[in-house]
Structure formats: C-alpha cells, structure tokens
Design brief:
With 382 residues, the chain is an alpha/beta fold.
Length: 382
C-alpha cells in the first residue's frame, strides 16, 4: 500500500508540472468553507452531470508532453476553467462495470465484473431520490454497454426497488429501431471490448425502447436511424442521446458513461489513441451543451473522471496500454476535473482523493447524505 501511495504521489506531481507548463494553471490549496458559505455560492435548482469513461488513458498518451496532442480540447477549453485533481486513487476491482458501479455507490463493489447483477450498496441516484423526494424522471444514466443495464439501482434493502435512476442504453435503442439488417450500424453496436463474447441478454422487447425514442426523446425511428448512420462510435451515440435527454427531460442528475477508449483491448495502439481523441472532443461537447441549454447554463457542475487507468509498459505482469490487469499505480491513479458555479478555475490539487469520494461530493452539492459510502466530500468542490 505504501508503494502505491508513493508512486501515486509521483504521478500526481508529474501531472501538475505538465499542466502548469501546458495551460498555466496554478497549484491550489484546500479552501475550507462552511456549509452556509457553500450553499450561498451555488445557484438554486442545481444540476450535476457526471462523465466517466472506461479504461482510462495513461499519461504518456494524455497529460505528458508527448501525449498532449491527443487531448487539445481538455487542455484548451476545460482545464483552465476547472479544478483539476491529479491523484484520484482506485483501490477496488479494475473491471469496467464493477469499477463504474463503485464510482456510483461510493463503496468498492466486489461482484464479478461480468455478472448481470445490481450494485450491493445504494447508488448516488437512490440517495438523491430518496432523501430529496425526487421523481424517477430527474435522474438518468446513459450507458454504453448492455452489461450496465442494472447500474441505476442497487439491491440494498433500504434503497433499491424503484428508487434508482432510469437507465437508457443507446445501443439497445438502435437495435430496436432496426427491423432488419445491421450492416450500416455494426460499428455502433460492439458491446464489450474486453470479453467480446459476453453480451448479456436484456429483458423486455423493442416496444419499450421505441416508446422511449418517440415519447421521451421526441425522435422518430427514421430520424434516429438516419442520424446514427452519421456517427462513428458508440460514445458519439451516447452523447447524442444525452443531448436529447437534456433538451426534452432536463434531469438534475445525469450520468454519462463512455467506453470508446476500451477498444485498447483489441491491441491496436492507433485505435486506442483515436478513442482518447474522441473522448477528449466529446467531453468538451458535453460542457458546451451545458453552457448552451437554458435548463443547465449557470447552474450545473460537471465532473469528469476515468474509472481507472491502464498498465505501464515496463510492468512484466501487464500488456501496456492494452489492459489493466496488474493493479500497478498507473492502473489505479486517475484524475478528476470539476467545472461549474462556485468551483475555482485554473487550479490543480495534488492531494490524494479516493474514487469513493465522488458520491459524497455530489451529496454535498445537492444536500443529501451518502450514508453507506466509504468516501468523504471533496471540500474544494462541495
């Protein structure tokens, strides 16, 4: 554990020095504010949008001099306006569904990453709805894989059972919209890069998905299929659906999980880098959407973080960029970017933050308690 902490701290300092040189951001200090001061600095009708992405990228392809060409939008448009945390450590299982579920519960989940099960601990969506008495329409998850269909609601006996988020699976929508023939859409329908033969069957029929398209998202099947044909990846499809949700439903808590970077498991470096560049662009697009939508502009906190990293090239137990199997510091040390009202702009924080801190931080923003979370609020945000 001590070795992980030492190396994670070194990674954090390296990130900070690069960001200072590349963007001019400064090292920040922890500002302790009272709950009343925090509340006064935030607008009413607060909203939170979370972007997580599976299989985060290593520094050498992002926040290092040789990688900065792959993240120009974050460096130019987001980081100078954000508080950036260089040392977010994930102490849990490094599998995409289980790690994302841990982010969403604030507790390290321990189930089989490829099992079709709900998280055991209450999710942020359940805390939000139960404590604040919010309807199901006010919190949504846009998920990239059929395996994420149960992430919105836990099996916890004090929560769960109708208290979770509504989950929308863009790939499932697209499949339902196609009466026959997937040839034009195969690039949007790949479901799992790490274990390609694992594609869970979902309950329910296409009628539910088509009703979501037309009644909820205000999209005709014809228009949806035509637009999907112009997209190059599943994450672009997810952001398109998220945009429609923001415009038609305007949920206060929206969670978007991206997945394109995880094509690294295929072993092709160029596809991995292409996924990084696309994720960089799409994160910036989401922020621009927030700024341009009247229901979100000026009242929304955006939180962006990977679920974990990838193996180091020099670790004999791993496969470099391709996998995340070793649990080495590069696999476990990620970052967090926070933008929005009341958050200091252009500062970098080196102190360690735990992956489980995300949920109680969102709780402090909205005013609910994450009773079963293992983390604590990040004071510079909440």
């Amino acid at each position: 554990m001590r070795r992980l902490e030492t190396l994670s701290d070194q990674i954090a300092r390296t990130r900070r020095e690069f960001l200072r040189d590349a963007t001019g951001v400064a090292l920040g200090s922890t500002l302790l504010r009272s709950p009343l001061a925090r509340a006064a600095s935030l607008p009413r009708n607060k909203k939170v949008v979370v972007i997580t992405f599976g299989g985060g990228a290593r520094d050498q392809e992002t926040f290092a001099p040789e990688g900065q060409e792959n993240v120009p939008n974050m460096l130019r448009d987001l980081i100078p306006r954000a508080s950036f945390f260089t040392q977010v450590v994930n102490h849990g299982i490094l599998g995409h569904y289980v790690a994302t579920a841990s982010l969403a519960t604030g507790a390290y989940e321990t189930f089989n990453n490829f099992a079709s099960v709900a998280p055991e601990n209450p999710t942020v969506f359940e805390y939000y709805r139960k404590d604040l008495k919010r309807p199901s329409s006010d919190t949504w998850v846009v998920a990239p894989s059929n395996g994420f269909n149960r992430i919105g609601e836990s099996s916890h006996r004090s929560y769960g059972m109708g208290l979770g988020a509504r989950v929308i699976l863009p790939k499932h929508l697209l499949t339902a919209a196609m009466s026959s023939g997937h040839t034009d859409y195969e690039h949007l329908l790949r479901d799992n890069y790490e274990t390609p033969y694992f594609t869970p069957e979902l309950a329910g029929g296409g009628e539910v998905e088509l009703q979501q398209l037309e009644d909820l998202l205000k999209l005709s099947v014809t228009d949806f299929k035509a637009h999907a044909r112009t997209l190059s990846s599943p994450d672009e499809l997810s952001v398109y659906i998220a945009r429609q949700l923001m415009r038609q439903v305007a949920p206060s808590l929206l969670w978007i999980t991206m997945h394109d970077i995880d094509i690294a498991h295929a072993g092709t470096y160029s596809l991995y880098v292409e996924g990084i560049r696309r994720t960089d662009r799409l994160c910036t697009e989401v922020w621009k959407m927030i700024e341009s939508e009247p229901e979100y502009a000026g009242k929304t906190t955006l939180l962006v973080l990977p679920d974990f990293g990838r193996d180091a090239d020099g670790d004999p137990g791993g496969n470099g960029f391709q996998h995340h199997r070793t649990g080495d510091p590069l696999s476990r040390t990620t970052w967090l970017m926070a933008l929005g009202p009341g958050i200091r702009e252009g500062v970098v924080h080196d102190r360690p933050v735990d992956s489980t801190d995300l949920v109680p931080t969102i709780g402090s923003i909205f005013g609910f308690s994450a009773n079963y979370s293992q983390g604590k609020p990040i004071q510079e945000i909440a």
